[in-house]
Amino acid sequence: MEPHNSSFLWVLLLIFMLNLKTPSVQGLGVNWGTRATHPLSPDIVVKLMKDNGINKVKLFEAEAWVLDALKNSGIQVMLGIPNDFLAPLASGVAIAENWVTKNVSAYVSRGVDIRYVAVGNEPFLKTYKNMFTNATLPALQNIQAALIKAGLGRQVKVTVPLNADVYESGSGVPSEGDFRPDIHGLMISIVKFLNDNGAPLTINIYPFLSLYADPHFPVDFAFFAGTNAPVVDGSVSYTNVFDANYDTLVSALEKNGFSSMPIIVGEIGWPTDGDVNANVQYARKFNQGLLSRIIQGQGTPKRKTPPDIYLFGLIDEDAKSIDPGNFERHWGIFNYDGSVKYKLDFGSNKTLVPAKGVRYLPAQWCVMAPDASETDPKLADSISYACTYADCTSLGYGSSCGGLDARSNASYAFNKYFQTFNQQQGSCNFNNLSVITKIPPTTGRASCKYDIMIDLGKHVKARSPRTSAAAIRWRSLDYSCSLVVVFLLSLIVGWVA
């Protein structure tokens, strides 16, 4: 072979070495919500996902500033459509075509790897009182037709993320699962439509909510470590609620003629604050158990292969609705600023790494003035005002800052307001009860801190920091695995030289 061919192979070898990527956990994605007063720069978030080997993301709506950051990122996207859009989309295919052109075709052509369009989000929740029941299937059909017209029918699949309350078991055992009677016919129509178009069914499963809704729910059953009181279903003993819940859905599909229907778990996770059972210890226990199953390729008794799973969520959202509970703002595996909440083992000594390039407002806090009285009649109203416009969910009963003394409680609320409003002049003015300090205040609890908000105007492009010892070990392992390939390539080069 000619010498230039040998040189070409050496170039390929060099490219291979330079493009070793952070390994990902196959089948693991995350939900990226943006309901925050100070959302991280999308470029920083995309880098955060890539640094942690996360290559699938679910978005709740088409936001240009987010989609632009995902161009050529190599991250697969499930793009959501909010429930409020269902009725317009159901009214005519032309509206669906316009939506697909603007939000799917335009971004696919620019390098965004959109794999799914999620039509609605848990539209059949009983709390919605049938508000979206009639619009969901027509909207789904119109979006599918629009994708086909755009030439994306094979590349982009439709789905509908549903809450696990769309199916049930009268006896409580998974094998007797079926779809909810009031929407049974509709569910069959949706499943058939998805099946006919080679699309998956997406379901959201929340063991935490089982525990939240029922104080008598067995705590151990919410996790993956086994329980002394399993649910016995014939020859199968279910030791955790996830397996039991998932297999109830599988039984419902089997019972109605869709035994091979693909399933995606669109949301699952555990919050770290806002409720007595929402804490770092439980969140780590649950998410680590879930991760370990994915890494090991462990499925459920009815389906041995695990589904694709989208962890909920990526980052805390301090402006999210708390109608379901205060915990809604604390689902992230990362804090509001992309810092790591707790250690998660992704296998082979790889753990979470924080966001890079985040800048903060000046190191100053708004606290209760030393000379202010805890019995001042204006204090309660001042705290109430601060918590009306800032996130004080951590002050609730059973939360990380619950039960603080009066002074710390007021200081926490004042500082939350001060930081939320970017430390602007006048934002630490609570009836002469507050003062700005540059001395870091403390609450006396490791889990309860006075935050400094990120500076939206000072994000910098993330740079690679010094490599940690854990990262060095991981990369050493990764390189050692790659050396086999390198060795084989070098043999080929030597042979053709």
UniProtKB/TrEMBL annotation:
Q: List residues of the X8 domain.
A: 364-450
Keywords assigned: Cell membrane, Disulfide bond, Glycoprotein, Glycosidase, GPI-anchor, Hydrolase, Lipoprotein, Membrane, Plant defense, Signal
What Gene Ontology cellular-component terms does the record carry?
A: plasma membrane; side of membrane
Q: Which PANTHER family match?
A: GLUCAN ENDO-1,3-BETA-GLUCOSIDASE BG1-RELATED-RELATED (PTHR32227)
BP-aspect Gene Ontology terms: carbohydrate metabolic process; defense response
Q: Which reaction does it catalyse?
A: Hydrolysis of (1->3)-beta-D-glucosidic linkages in (1->3)-beta-D-glucans
What does the sequence similarity comment in the record state about its family?
Belongs to the glycosyl hydrolase 17 family.
Q: Where in the cell is it found?
A: Cell membrane
Name this polypeptide is given: glucan endo-1,3-beta-D-glucosidase
Q: Which organism is it from?
A: Tagetes erecta
Q: Is Cell membrane one of the keywords?
A: yes
Write the lineage as a comma-separated list.
Eukaryota, Viridiplantae, Streptophyta, Embryophyta, Tracheophyta
Keyword Ribosomal protein included in the entry's annotation: no
User: Per UniProt, what is one GO molecular function of this protein?
Assistant: glucan endo-1,3-beta-D-glucosidase activity
| Signal peptide as annotated in the record | 1-27
- Which class of enzymes does this protein belong to? hydrolase
| Entry EC no(s) | 3.2.1.39
Q: Which domain of life is it from?
A: Eukaryota
Listed Pfam families? Glyco_hydro_17 (PF00332), X8 (PF07983)
Q: How does it sit in the membrane?
A: Lipid-anchor; GPI-anchor
